[in-house]
Design brief:
Elements lengths: L2 E2 L12 H22 L7 E4 L4 H15 L7 E7 L8 E3 L4 E4 L2 E4 L2 H7 L5 E3 L2 H4 L2 H4 L2 H7 L4 E7 L4 H11 L5 E6 L4 E3 L1 H16 L14 H14 L2 E9 H4 L6 E10 L1
Parallel strand pairs: 1-5, 2-9, 3-8, 3-9, 4-7
Antiparallel strand pairs: 2-12, 4-8, 5-6, 10-12, 11-12
Length: 266
């Protein structure tokens, strides 16, 4: 069996399984409290979740995952995030049979992945997965809040919103499939500027306006925009669950990174 091993355990999140499980459970428990104050809403078909080190974005990720926790219906997760380390023309699939984290192994949905390879904009590029944190950091959260599931991980590079939307259409599935888009928001502005920019981005996401996203909005703006188009096609509504930045969680306020949690349901 070909295994994609964790690349950022011990840096972005704890490498020790017990410490990792406790950290994730704590973030999700706090997320439940946050949702209880703001209203839980319908269980989402798709979520947008940040992907920084847990000390920075874990509280916001916990809010997103609290919204999907305990759904016995979910058997497959389609996970898209931006390719940070390797140039990718289109979307990069993995040839692995499973992804590993300190919490165990997650089988990949090989038939679904292989079925995508008819597309000229999807190819197997293992180098794009080897060190990519935007996908990996989501996995311990998914392992703690869901039962057993199969994974379709895709690293998104030079593509359009429309291409991503078409790929999501092929993978959409029914209630058994959860769509997870991994993205941070603004990068390295002062706290006040980031707060303003992220509020504008959150409004564009909630109202399903991908054309209002630019390079300043989100590092994962291409997969985010693709989800917004797919949500339009299927009549889903976007809802902001949490919006903070690293100045609110664990960092200074001179230069911050923005984090948002969003849910999409009918």
């Amino acid at each position: 069996m070909k295994l994609r091993r964790p690349a950022v355990a011990g840096s972005f999140y704890p490498a020790d399984p017990a410490a990792l499980a406790a950290a994730v459970d704590g973030y999700v428990a706090a997320g439940r409290q946050h949702l209880a104050r703001s209203g839980t809403g319908q269980r989402p078909k798709a979520v947008i979740v940040p992907h920084a080190g847990y000390v920075y974005s874990g509280p916001i990720a916990g809010t997103a995952y609290a919204a999907v926790a305990g759904s016995a219906a979910i058997e497959r997760v389609v996970l898209l995030g931006p390719a940070h380390r390797v140039y990718v023309d289109g979307l990069a699939a993995s040839s692995a049979d499973a992804y590993a984290t300190p919490l165990g192994e997650i089988p990949l949905d090989r038939p679904a992945i292989d079925a995508l390879l008819h597309r000229s904009d999807v190819a197997v590029v293992d180098a794009a997965h080897a060190a990519e944190h935007s996908l990996e950091v989501q996995l311990p959260f998914l392992q703690r809040v869901l039962g057993p599931f199969r994974l379709v991980p895709l690293a998104v590079g030079a593509a359009t919103h429309a291409v991503v939307a078409d790929v999501l259409d092929e993978l959409w599935g029914g209630a058994d499939t959860l769509i997870v888009i991994s993205s941070d928001l603004s990068h390295y502005y002062d706290y006040a500027t980031a707060t303003r920019l992220d509020a504008d981005t959150a409004a564009a996401i909630e109202t399903l306006h991908p054309e209002r996203l630019d390079t300043e909005s989100a590092c994962g703006r291409i997969p985010v925009g693709g989800l917004l188009i797919a949500a339009q096609r299927r009549g889903l509504r976007g809802r902001l669950l949490d919006l903070r930045n690293s100045g609110d969680t664990a960092g200074p306020r001179e230069e911050v990174v923005g984090y948002g949690a969003f849910a999409f349901s009918s």
